[in-house]
Amino acid sequence: MPATYVKSYVKRGKTDAANAEAICEVVRLPTMRFVDIKSEYQQAVLAIHGFRVLVV
């Protein structure tokens, strides 16, 4: 899930426990949209494009 959706639910300082609590709270929302997991092929293509940008 995008981090911007979770950020507004963190009630305290930035700690692992506070982040985990916020994620658990957000996941329960019925309107939450999740980010699809990229396949190995998609990750490889993105890595090639990123490398090309660095070379150029």
Question: Number of folding domains?
Answer: 1
Counting H and I runs of at least 4 residues, what is the number of helices? 3
Mean pLDDT: 80
The assigned structural class equals mainly alpha
Q: How far apart, in Å, are the first and last alpha carbons?
A: 32 Å
* Low-confidence spans: none
| Main beta-sheet annotation | none
The geometry reads as elongated
Question: What's the number of extended β-strand segments?
Answer: 0
Question: What level of helicity do the residues show?
Answer: 55-70%
Q: Rg to the nearest angstrom?
A: 16 Å
Order of helices and strands: HHH
Strand content: under 5%
How would you describe this protein?
The protein has 56 residues and is an all-alpha fold. The chain has one domain (3-55). 59% of the residues lie in helices and 0% in strands. It contains three helices and no strands. The chain has helices at 3-7, 16-27, 40-55. The two termini are 32 Å apart. The mean pLDDT is 80.
